Amino acid sequence: MSFIEDMKQRAKQSIKTIVLPESEDIRILKGTEIVLNEGFAKIILLGNPEKVISLAKENGINIEGTQIINPQTSEKLDQYANTLYELRKAKGMTLEDAKKILIENSRYFATMMVKVGDADGFVSGACNPTSDTLRPALQIIKGAEGVKTVSAFFIMTLKDKEFGENGTLIFADCGMNVDPSADQLADIAVSSSKSFKELISKESIPRVAMLSYSTKGSAKSELTDKVIEATKLAKEKDPNLIVDGEMQLDAAIIPEVAKLKASGSEVAGRANILIFPNLDAGNIGYKLVQRFAHAEAYGPLCQGLAKPVNDLSRGCSAEDVAGVVAITAVQSQQI
To answer: Which domains can be identified in the chain, with CATH numbers?
Structure first.
């Protein structure tokens, strides 16, 4: 069974409600149809019901059974506006501002639905930049208890099953923290190990490689020092975490190279979680693997939020939409 099929099966065990605010995008409607046909989540679409239904019919898409909510006429609008105002008034938001942004920005409306428990999670990003999805989540839902650094990760599934966990790896941070400090990198490593357990395998051991251009002192600079410090801090934050670094990519995933560059490491040659030193490296790295290795890339997924919110690539397909809905539903089961 593929990773995403496993997610769908797990999602069926406890059906959750996921909001999709970008109902004007055909891929979202097709993704909704897939979810409904396979029955692994309930979907709420945000938009004008007449326009959404008309768009679906024009394109031969069956979304019957989906709840469609128009933020402008929703009976919950005043409740959401009052709650948003209370949450953001210290930042200068007025009640009028709160109502306006909920009417004009469907991602804020979706976030409020999740915040108050009218939905279990939301997925966006097919036709909006990542910041439009993550900003309201960070402002309103915020981090889970005890989490200092909210971060973004990709689940990469490869055709070559010798890498990672039967071809599946976590790449982080690939979507949120531009230049994380050593302490933030350590937080990202710990959060990624939890995401591995939640989504990939409860039985397998997360093995975290803290990536660099150097392996075990082969080069030295402020960049390598940061990764070395992050590795130390990650071990302090979670003494049970199997983590090692600093480490080059080939040493992290190729056993033969690991023997030469990092012999005796519990991670080298067997890493299933790759922590990149900054967003440049993370974004470039996942796209290289996605395009050159023809890997499936799910994300950026968020970790560390109090409730699940996930982003889509603007190049996503309808199948990607359905896949991220399944992942979001499984995440919401953990809360």
So the answer is: 3-142+314-333 (3.40.50.10950), 151-292 (3.40.50.10750)
